[in-house]
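Regression test case RT-17, inverse folding.

Input:
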């Protein structure tokens, strides 16, 4: 065969793609599990996060859970908003699928805030909207209060600049003390009991929270958070409320403050004061709920969705 004939045969033959598309792309309304490496005071640790929506969408919503909770608390909210946002829900260190810290004293807001800054760098975005429940709201306040903050819209779910000592003592009674469960049904019964302030959730919602709150171990199930996060409550008993007004007053972005009407963590007087100082938060209370609204009902979802998306109008 001549050289010309060989070249013609080569270029006339169909060639395989250098980078063929994957057989199937994940649906935008289904979660994608990812992780990022973070640096703490005593070395590196891995922070897992769940991502929803178009991964190229420059509009990013970060949702951060409460003290013993995890990223999957926000599944309902993420599905409701993933057509508008790239929704990112991290497991704070020591919770969910993230690494447990070797030195338990490292569990605290300096590490949590630093990890979130690392996460935002990984996401490669200049600004985000933020939904934070309880501890996640405090992390959001700390970030939003900084000069040049990337947080441009903030939702504080049942948390504010005063955290009552009574609520922290209540939380300290069960943090890190959960028993081992011999069945998923037993785990659900426990979670329903300690999380009764979440309100009247459906059976499907309680099961969703349970499935994502426990991990399988030999002989049954255990909670998927490091019991060591409770050390701070046991080692440093709180006798006074935590005052974060100096942080709150530095926040300048539009802010929505939510409260469960029976909450023992965010008091009515604090919520009222939040509307008149700092970012002058818009405030909403939900009846029949304590600490904290789980943002699963259509009523709660609508309030958050309308606030976050009004900037599109």
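Golden output:
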């Amino acid at each position: 065969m001549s050289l010309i004939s060989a070249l013609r045969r080569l270029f006339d033959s169909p060639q395989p793609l250098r980078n063929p598309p994957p057989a199937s792309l994940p649906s935008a309304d289904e979660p994608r599990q990812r992780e990022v490496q973070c640096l703490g005071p005593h070395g590196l640790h891995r922070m897992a996060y769940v991502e929803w929506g178009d991964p190229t969408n420059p509009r990013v919503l970060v949702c951060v859970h409460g003290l013993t909770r995890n990223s999957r608390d926000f599944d309902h909210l993420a599905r409701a908003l993933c057509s508008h946002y790239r929704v990112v829900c991290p497991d704070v260190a020591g919770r969910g699928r993230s690494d447990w810290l070797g030195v338990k004293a490292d569990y605290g807001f300096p590490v949590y805030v630093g990890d979130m800054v690392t996460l935002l760098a990984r996401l490669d975005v200049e600004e985000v909207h933020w939904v934070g429940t309880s501890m996640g709201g405090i992390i959001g306040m700390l970030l939003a209060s900084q000069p040049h903050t990337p947080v441009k819209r903030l939702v504080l779910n049942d948390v504010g600049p005063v955290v009552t000592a009574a609520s922290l003592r209540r939380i300290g009674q069960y943090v890190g003390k959960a028993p081992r469960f011999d069945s998923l049904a037993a785990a659900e019964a426990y979670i329903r009991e300690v999380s009764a302030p979440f309100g009247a959730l459906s059976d499907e919602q309680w099961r969703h929270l349970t499935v994502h709150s426990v991990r399988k171990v030999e002989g049954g199930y255990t909670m998927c958070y490091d019991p060591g996060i409770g050390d701070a409550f046991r080692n440093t008993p709180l006798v006074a409320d935590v005052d974060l007004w100096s942080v709150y007053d530095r926040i300048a972005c539009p802010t929505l403050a939510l409260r469960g009407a029976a909450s023992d963590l965010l008091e009515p007087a604090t919520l009222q004061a939040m509307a008149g100082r700092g970012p002058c938060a818009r405030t909403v209370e939900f009846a029949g709920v304590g600490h904290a609204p789980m943002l699963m009902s259509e009523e709660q979802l609508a309030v958050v969705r309308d606030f976050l998306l009004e900037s599109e109008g």
